[in-house]
Amino acid sequence: MTAVISHPDCTLHQNGTGSHPESAGRLGAINNQLITSGLDCVLSHYDAPKAGKHDLYRVHTREYVEQVFRLAPQQGYTMLDGDTWMNPHTLNAALRSAGAMLKAVDLVMTGKHSQAFCNIRPPGHHAGKSRAAGFCIFNNVAVGAAYALEKYDLQRVAILDFDVHHGNGTEDIFSGDQRILFGSSFQHPFYPYSGADTDVPNIINLPMPAGTSGEIWQQAVAQQWLPRLDEFKPELIIISAGFDSHWKDDMGGFKLLEADYAWFTQEMVKLADKYARGRLISCLEGGYDLPSLGRSAVAHIKQLAEFQS
Ligand SMILES: [Zn+2]
Fold first, then answer.
1. pTM of the predicted model, to two decimals?
2. How far is the CA of 137 from the centre of ligand 1 (A)?
3. Which of 15, 12, 7 is nearest to 86 (CA)?
4. Could you tell me if residue 309 is inside a domain?
5. Is 46 contained in some domain?
6. For 239-283, what is each residue's pLDDT tens digit?
């Protein structure tokens, strides 16, 4: 069975007073579609624990972690960067989001589940060692990967990011760390305007132009990521699942469809079965068009769960 990890606190975080694309409705859209599709009854649901400061210190500077705790408002809002705000519930939501990855790592490393999906917000992949950015506060996948390396003594963890935006925070944290192989496929040139010229052995980015179709994206993944993953032989695979690369999502200009996420997930399941005893964790990043977000997440989780409908 596949685990789904979330927490009600994740729905209470709001990015300021106005309407914001990174909204609580995103988690609901995924949950509703899980139920409608019939997939929900083959999933095991878990509440995310809160990450502790020591979990955050593995990937963020102490100064930054302390700053986030200090800025967390009792009432109203504080701004961490132009796109990223905190309300009185945000700190707990961010700690639960990072904590979901800790729970996922424990579940797959102890063999209780082979796969896990973290249905959480705020997302994480733009959060670097010492800064919040682009709706992200703590780097959830990085917190999970660093925990897996330390607690379970792993030597090789792969992180693949299919969000339409470059996972610049994850790259900042793990650049040069040979225990991690990190690949981000993203629209270029586009926010956050980084990652296209990275020349570091453990970073395998795929910058691609606006309008990239699923067919072209699949070719690039098959030619450039799959052979590197075969060489690397990851003991754990983590996916930064950003569904804003969907054709219907106007936060970006890629044209991926549900079938592309399903294909990618199948490839990751095959690799995890081959090298990682099936251990595969996926964590929500972007995805702002609610109907396509729900459908895409379900197409992805169906393949994680190897669910035949
Ligand atoms: Zn994104």
1. 0.99
2. 14
3. 15
4. no
5. yes
6. 999 999 999 999 999 999 999 999 999 999 999 999 999 999 999
For residue 197, being part of any structural domain is answered with: yes
CATH of the domain at 95: 3.40.800.20
Residue 250 CB partners (closer than 8 Å, separation 6+):
289
Active-site amino acid positions? 126
Look up tokens 């990521």; give the residue: 225
Give CB contacts under 8 A, 24+ apart, made by 224-229. 225/160, 225/183, 226/267, 226/271, 228/181, 228/183, 228/204, 229/158, 229/160, 229/181, 229/271
Task: State in Å: Cα 244 to ligand 1 middle.
Answer: 6
Domain carrying residue 213: 2-304
Instruction: State the Cα–Cα distance between residues 225 and 212, nearest whole angstrom.
Output: 17
One-character DSSP codes across 201-245: TTB--EEE-TT-BHHHHHHHIIIIIHHHHHHH--SEEEEEE-GGG
Q: Which residues contact 254 (CB under 8 A, 6 or more apart)?
A: 164, 187, 208, 210, 211, 212, 217, 245, 246, 247
> Which amino acid type is present at position 301?
I
Q: Tell me: the pLDDT tens digits for 199-242? A: 999 999 999 999 999 999 999 999 999 999 999 999 999 999 99
Q: How far is the CA of 112 from the centre of ligand 1 (A)?
A: 31
| Structural domain includes residue 100 | yes
- Centre of ligand 1 from the C-alpha of residue 258, in Å: 16
Q: How many domains does the chain have?
A: 1
User: Do residues 42 and 113 touch, judged by C-beta distance below 8 A?
Assistant: no
Expressed in angstroms and rounded, the spacing between residue 252 Cα and the centre of ligand 1 is 8
- Of 124, 129, 127, 128, nearest to 140 (Cα)? 124
Q: Return the amino acid letter for 175.
A: S
Q: How far is the CA of 119 from the centre of ligand 1 (A)?
A: 15
